[in-house]
Amino acid sequence: SHNHILWSRMPSYKKSMLDELLERDKQIFEYWSHAAAYLPIKNFRYSLIRKKDYQKKYKEWCKANRKIISFVYDRIRAEGELQSKDFAHTGIRSSGWWDWKPAKEALDILFHQGHLMIARRKGFQKVYDLTERVLPGNIDTTFPSPDEFYRYLISTAINSHGIISEKEIVYLRKYDKKLFRKVINEYLESRKILKVNVEGFRDENYYTLENKIEISGRIKKLSQMHILSPFDNLVIQRKRLSNIFKYDYILECYVPHHKRKFGYFCLPVLFGDKFIGKIDAKADRKAKLFIVKNIFLEKKIKMSRSLMLSFEKQLIDFAKFTGCEKIAGYDPKNFSLPL
After folding, report:
1. Continuous H helices in 58-145
2. For residue 330, which phi and psi values (nearest 5 degrees)?
3. Rounded to whole angstroms, what are the CA distances from 248 to 113, 210, 254?
4. Does pTM surpass 0.85?
5. Which domains does the chain have, with CATH numbers?
6. In this predicted model, what pLDDT tens digit does every residue of 282-313 receive, in sequence order?
């Protein structure tokens, strides 16, 4: 999904680019933001708060499992980079099988607590090493104060989204509401950020930067088609998506089969600044076949030939991106089926 997200913004993107940034250039690292993410290495210090919280939260678990944790850590320290599969014969043998779940859990704990980092990926598999052997020596590792952390959250959220509300800034995070609003007010008083109104949301405060307002007046509307990932930052906050774009979206792989309306892994379709529908598709990489199961248009979208041609071009490009050479199941008549 991360490759899909990057490709949506840069059609010339290749997976090797991300690998180089992680492994060779060490400009990014894998950790947790509101969810699993690739983050700028310059912001490494802001990950220390979650790591400290994780150490406190799982203190008792670590005590109860200190032997397996020490075993996993010591092996990586002695042998170098290892994957979870390298611990496949670690644990208790029962009925002819090795229970290596404790070793995998130890890897996960050591990663989230900050003792290990992901040095690289081998296929989809994480390759772990000690943090001190992965992290460049010139990176700031001072522990941020709560004020610093909230300033970081506010600035990165506004730079990423243009305008954003308090709830959206702290999406899926625990935070001190009183302290957070103190930092917001300080930013407002110094005019480092501005408060803006969003039509239809008088009770919700949105924030932005002055230069974002200036830039917005110069933005040229582009009529480009995009088939997006369900985990794209533009759609990941479903309430924001509904409020600003009037587009309702649910990733139905988490919904029981009998309750699904659109499909297991439907993808949002964006045209210009409007979400026009969804596509239920699957890439059979072994057969190099991209299978279109269904296409759903939003009710207010009127189909035109230019819109259809734009979608078809994006569909072909997306199929190629997934490694497929042929498309099956696509029928332009599907566009006559509004939601």
Report:
1. 59-64, 66-79, 101-112, 131-134
2. -80, 130
3. 36, 30, 16
4. yes
5. 2-134 (1.10.10.10), 146-216 (1.10.10.10), 225-336 (3.40.630)
6. 999 999 999 999 999 998 888 888 888 999 99
